[in-house]
Amino acid sequence: MQSPTDDHFTAVKRILPYLKGTVTLGIQFTRGPFTLTAYSDADWAGDTCDRRSVSGYCLFMGNNTIAWCAKKQATVARSSTESEYRCLAHTAAELSWLRMLFKDLQIPLFHVPTIWCENISAISLASNPVFHARTKQIEVDYHFIREKVLHKDLQVRHISTVDQVSFSYLSAVC
User: Fold this and answer.
1) Structure confidence by residue, pLDDT tens digits, 108-129
2) How far apart are CA 118 and CA 62, in angstroms?
3) Where do the domains of the chain lie, and which CATH numbers do they carry?
């Protein structure tokens, strides 16, 4: 700041006491395996006003939550599979970004990242390159998750609804 104003000084006066009072607060990471894991879930047509689905995911590095998101999908999904697949695509994009960040920081990953999803049809769609006759309504750009799975950049696994971690993020958006 080359020429601070009175507003800047006022802001600093408010920030400094806050920083002093929160010095002991922070995110604590536990030791554990250095693996990237994600949980992905969608609430198909969950918004009763416009019937758009809500996507949610959370990413873990070992046992530590490092990223999470819950947001309404941009378009109406025609099936629960489409809704879950869109959510998988967003989760895969976040995982891909983290992998690139770790690569740039020269942090090796010894395991393929895993996305846990409860929708078996969405998992099949991500894993099976010929399973697409009924999914033409899903935009082409969402099929990049299939490419990530085929190149073994990540894997998508099934998890029961009871064990789904990311579901708790969805209710905050609806």
Assistant:
1) 989 999 999 999 989 988 887 6
2) 21
3) 36-170 (3.30.420.10)
